[in-house]
Write a structure and sequence with these properties.
single chain, alpha/beta, TIM Barrel, seven-stranded parallel β-sheet, two-stranded antiparallel sheet, 9 strands
């Protein structure tokens, strides 16, 4: 997966930047649009244009919005949840999203939530929050559907090729 952030300021891309990046990507790599309380119309424009194939929601979007995206746009939805307690995990498990993303909450802090809270998770999930080359193997050992990493493979706010390689080497070493 490759993610395009359409929210916030730090990593935000314009629709045009995302479209150009999509064209440069291998067609077999699904592009994920990351949104925070955005409109169905804007999300739909990006799906229709072929810029994104999956929608990731990080705001206060409820199951009605998730279903609207799924049914109207015919794409898979990842819904992000901030995890601080077992109650948060239970709420995430009940989501109507195709996938859930379990995160520390405050993005870009480099902090992980207590992974012991995942002991009873019974559906595929994306693991995010505080991931980096030093804990990638431990994260992979939890057997999430996918790992979502961003700031943990950056140096001074820019993706670092060596950190990416180290991260992937740790994940691949675990999976052997």
């Amino acid at each position: 997966y490759a993610g395009f952030v359409f929210a916030g300021k730090k990593r935000r891309v314009s629709d045009d930047q995302a479209a150009a990046s999509r064209k440069a990507l291998d067609p077999s790599i699904p592009a994920v649009g990351v949104f925070v309380d955005d409109s169905l119309k804007h999300i739909g424009q990006l799906v229709t244009a072929g810029t994104i194939q999956i929608v990731q929601l990080h705001g206060c979007e409820d199951d009605a919005m998730i279903e609207a995206v799924q049914q109207t746009l015919k794409v898979r939805v990842i819904k992000a949840f901030s995890i601080a307690s077992e109650a948060d995990v239970r709420q995430a498990r009940c989501s109507r999203a195709d996938y859930i993303l379990l995160d520390h909450g405050a993005g870009g802090t480099g902090d992980c939530f207590d992974w012991a809270l995942l002991a009873h998770i019974d559906r595929p999930y994306f693991l995010a929050g505080g991931l980096n080359p030093d804990n990638a193997a431990q994260a992979a050992a939890l057997q999430p559907f996918a790992l979502d990493v961003s700031s943990g493979i950056e140096t001074d706010g820019v993706k670092d090729k060596e950190k990416m390689k180290r991260f992937m080497a740790q994940v691949r070493a675990y999976r052997r």
